[in-house]
Amino acid sequence: MSEDFSMFSNRIKMETGDYYLSPEGFIVFTEQYHLKRGYCCKSGCKHCPYGFNKKTGAINSKK
What we know:
This protein is 11% helix and 16% strand. It is built from one helix and four strands, in the order ββαββ. Strands 1-2 form a two-stranded antiparallel ribbon. Strands 3-4 form a two-stranded antiparallel sheet. The N and C termini lie far apart (49 Å).
């Protein structure tokens, strides 16, 4: 079976300022990283620049 794994080569390179470690040891992505990624994952991220509201499931435009 031939499987296509080419999508894994398109991962975003991590840079300084893309994330930080929380006191609990979790990786927290910053607004800089989310904007670089280019879309909302709809997970209710702490620094979501797209305005996703996890309670309503809607993206509210941020101005």
